[in-house]
Amino acid sequence: MADQVRDVAIIGGGPAGLSAGLYLCRSKVDTVLFEQELTGGQAVYSPLIENYPGFPDGIPGAELIEKIKTQAERFGLETTTFARVEGIEDGGKVRTLLLENGQVTARAVIIASGRSPRKMGIPGEDEYTGRGISYCATCDAPLFREKVVMVIGGGDAAVEEALHLTRFASKVILVHRRDELRASAYLKERAHAEPKLEFVWNSVLAEVKGDKTVQAAVVVNKETDEQTEISVSGVFIYVGNVPNSSFVADLVELDDAGYIKTDETMATGVPGIFVAGDVRANQFKQVIISAAEGALAASSAQRYLERIGARKAYGGAAVW
Hints:
2 domains; single chain; about 325 residues
C-alpha cells in the first residue's frame, strides 16, 4: 500500500470525513479514509439528532451516520477502520501517513479526526471506567435498568444523555458546577419537566468509590465546601472534549486549546493539508457544520490537486 500514491487521504470517519469522502469520490478523485475505531465519530452516540435538515422528526445519530456512509460508499469511498494514524510526514509534493502497521502516501490530506471526551482526573475515574463510569449513555444506558445513576455536566451533551438515561434508570442525578444548565432552551425545558431527573447545583464530582463496580460518588458543593457521598451504580461524565490533534502538533498550527487552525477554505499553513470538523479551531461544534466543512475541505483539496497538476481543471469550476 505504501508504493501507491493516493490523491487524497482522509483521517477520521465522522460527519466531516465521510462528507469529504462523498464529495471527492463523486468527483472521481482517488480517495481513502482511515478511522481509528468504527466510522461515525461522537455523532453516532447521540440518541436523537433533531436539528439536522431533512429529518423533521429527528434521527438517531447512528442511523444518520450510516446513511452518510452508505451514500459515500455508493460513489466508491474506500474506508479502513481500526487504523490509527500516528503522524504525518510532509514530503513537499506528497504527504506520508504513518500508521500503526505501515504507511500510506497521498498528494493531499484532510484531517477530520474529531475530538474525544475529556477526563476529570479524579480518584476512582481510571479504576472504574468501564465498571460503572461511562462517557456514553447511548452505549451503556441499558446496563443500568432500574438503578440510580449520576450525570456530570450541564451542556447539551450532558442533558441529552441524562434524558436518554431516564428511559432505563430509576433516577438520574445531574450534577452541575453552576446554578443553571448551559444547554439549549429546548433541552432545558425537557429536563425540568422530567420527573426522574434530579439536580444538584453548584457542585462538582470529587471521587468515585466502589468495590468491583461503582457504588458511590462524592460530590462537593463549591459554595460551602460540603462533601456529600451519594449512592449510585453509574456515573456518566460530560465535562468537555479534547481535540484529537496531538499526532500533528509539530506539523500544523494549533490554538491554545489544541484545535487546528485553518483559513476560510479549511487549508492549514502546510500546502496540501486541510482540516474539517470538530478538530478544527471553529466556534461551533455541530454535525451539520462538520458535514459542511468536510464538503468545503474536499473542494479545496480538489483545487489543490488541480494546481499541482495531479488533476485536470474544469474551467475553474467544481465538479459537483
